[in-house]
Amino acid sequence: MKIRFQKVLIVIFIFAITGCATYPVNPRLSQYNPQSGYRFENIMGSENSDGLFVILTFSGGGTRAAALSYGVLEKLRDTKIQWEGKEKRLLDQVAVISSISGGSFTAAYYGMFGDELFNPDSFQKTFLYRNIERDLIISMFNPINWFRLASPYFGRIDLAEEIYDREIFKQKTFGDMSKQAHRPFIMINATDMTIGSQFTFIQDQFDLMCSDLNGVHVARAVAASSDFPVAFSPMTMNNYAGTCGYQERPWMKEASKDLLDNPPRFNRARIARTYLSSERPYIHLLDGGVADNIGLLTPLVALTSNDLPWSLLNKINQGKIKKLVVIVVDARTDPKTKTDKSPCSPGLTTVVNDIATIPMSNYSFETVQKLHDTFNEWLKDVQYYNDCEGILKERCPTANMPHKPPVPVDTYMIYVGFDQIKDLKDRDYFLNLPTTFCLQKEAVDKLRAVGPKILDDSEEFTRLLRGL
Amino acid sequence: MGMEFVVVSYPTSRNVRIDGEILGKTNDTHSVEQGHHIFDLGDPHDYKPDSVEMDIENTTSIKPLIINDFKPK
User: Fold this and answer.
1) Residue A8 burial by CB count (10 A; 0-12/13-18/19+): exposed, middle or buried?
2) Inter-chain Cβ pairs, chain A and chain B, closer than 8 A
3) Spatial separation of the C-alpha atoms in residues A324 and A414, rounded to whole Å
4) Which end of chain A is more exposed for a tag (fewer CB within 10 A), N or C?
5) Apex A57 CA angle, A115 and A214, nearest 5
6) Which residues are CB-neighbours of A406 under 8 A, at least 6 positions away?
7) Could you say which architecture CATH assigns to the domain B3-72?
8) CA of A327, closest CA in chain B: separation in Å?
């Protein structure tokens, strides 16, 4: 009788723990207010001006990506420039960092703690040179967590977030990041699993769900951004759409007429509207690399569309941006594989891993090309106007063009990737580094050094510095 | 998809809004994304019509779409 009673108690205890285990719920937004929250327009108030506008994008790739982007930030910190009559660090002109997965650790830490990132006792110890994978595995073997993980409302990604929150990001929230009110604006990207589109941790995205990003821990965004399929469970966010007075933005209505004129714009409106629907009370997120592995898609939309509240195209139209610099930090690898050396069908792990990484890695080339094409078109549009004006003045010196030229902007597209390493042996080394949260010290040191080296060798980076 | 170009003409220089966001100033040439847009001049509402809806395509930097519907009240 006594043993049976003990068994019942144990079962009740297990159910109690399991039932209590739930993901940290993102808070409701009581009232939509475009003047508050973590959004680009509210992250001002520093000496960082729009005139020289630097965007960084950090790709996914575990610690490899985190270390490569860390090295690039070190290089920008050490690069002194003259801008608007003052000597500055190029790093201080970085206005936006858009990041994915491993790159999100570096981006979020810099956004939250600023130059503390470079303190050898901080990020280097808590993440870059640390075997955080071991911490994740140890937590999985903790019997208490077995019960928690048995809950359908608590997954491996929530466990990972707890570790990142405690060990790296010190329980800081986006509210803490907002209070600092200084650039860069950090855009941590995940993927909305059911619609396959990018989900960015900024208030503009959370407005759609009537949720207050200020109450979300930074570690949660980083965990979602690095939520590699199958290795971790998808992350759940609550959607309270329709409860905060948010109204559909005017561009959504207009874009819904653009199915044939401009399908990507039509699709952006379609995706935004899915959050406003009562059909999706919960949103499930995966690694940002599933939608875009280099973090360039959202900045590209800001550069080519007038729709976003922080549209860079509108800032260019207003003459606010004189020089626009985009530095793409891509930790893409090209590992040697045994798959094609065997007639055997690859196993499930290989298939899942390859599907989750290789197609997007290929797509990244297209995204970079789109940025390149956009910059070229802007240049051609201004040249076209100037050529016509030149011909007009030659034939008819007293005549004027009937309207003003488009606003010119100097553009610089700088790509930092392992394919640019000239030494074959070195290139092979970096292209075969694994995607993991546990790299040898030597590898991290080399990754920190190679980003600055690629920048030094970059003609575009040299051209930028010559003009400053 | 290339850029489109728009000039919103008005007797004085004032803000132009596109789909509720500030695009730039009247009488300047602006780059816009292809498709349907609503233009207005924001506050003060001392002009008519209240807004103009346009489907913008096939423009160039030397031949922008000229919107000359707005007049002072």
Assistant:
1) exposed
2) 111
3) 11
4) N
5) 65
6) A378, A381, A382, A385, B3, B5, B29, B30, B31, B61
7) Sandwich (2.60)
8) 22
Q: How many Å apart are CA A217 and CA A27, to the nearest integer?
A: 11
Q: What is the pLDDT of residues A57-80, one digit of tens each?
A: 999 999 999 999 999 999 999 999
Main-chain phi, psi angles of A436, to 5 degrees: -155, 165
**Among B69, B41, B57, which residue's Cα sits nearest to residue B5?**
B57
Domain layout of chain B by residue ranges: 3-72
Strands A410-417 and A323-330: parallel
Structural contact between residues B5 and B31, judged by C-beta atoms closer than 8 angstroms:
yes
Per residue in B5-47, pLDDT (tens digit) is 999 999 999 999 999 999 999 999 999 999 999 999 999 999 9
Contact A261 B5 (CB under 8 A): no
β-pair type (B21-25, B15-18): antiparallel
Q: What is the pLDDT of residues A6-49, one digit of tens each?
A: 766 665 555 555 556 889 999 999 999 999 999 998 887 566 78
Distance, first Cα to last Cα, chain B: 37
Cα gap A262→A200, rounded to integer Å = 22
DSSP A84-131: TTEEEEGGGGEEEEEEEHHHHHHHHHHHHHGGGGG-TTTHIIIIITS-
- Please indicate if any CB of chain A lies within 8 Å of the CB of B5: yes
Query: Does the pLDDT of residue A246 top 90, yes or no?
Result: yes
Residue A329, exposed/middle/buried by CB under 10 A (0-12, 13-18, 19+)?
Answer: buried
Q: In what order do the strands lie in the sheet with B15-18?
A: B21-25, B15-18, B35-40, B52-56
- Give me A15's structure tokens: 């159910």
ipTM of the prediction greater than 0.90, yes or no:
yes
Q: Do A381 and B7 touch (CB under 8 A)?
A: no
Which residue has 């010559």 as its token pair?
A466
- Compute and round to an integer the Cα radius of gyration of chain B: 11
Residue B63 sits at the chain A interface (C-beta within 8 Å): no
- What residue of B is the nearest CA neighbor of A308? B21
**Going by DSSP bridges, is the β-strand pair A235-238/B71-72 parallel, antiparallel, or unpaired?**
unpaired
CA distance B42 to chain A (A): 14
> What pLDDT was estimated at residue A13?
57
Retrieve residue A341's tokens. 């050396």
Q: Are A191 and A286 in contact (CB under 8 A)?
A: yes
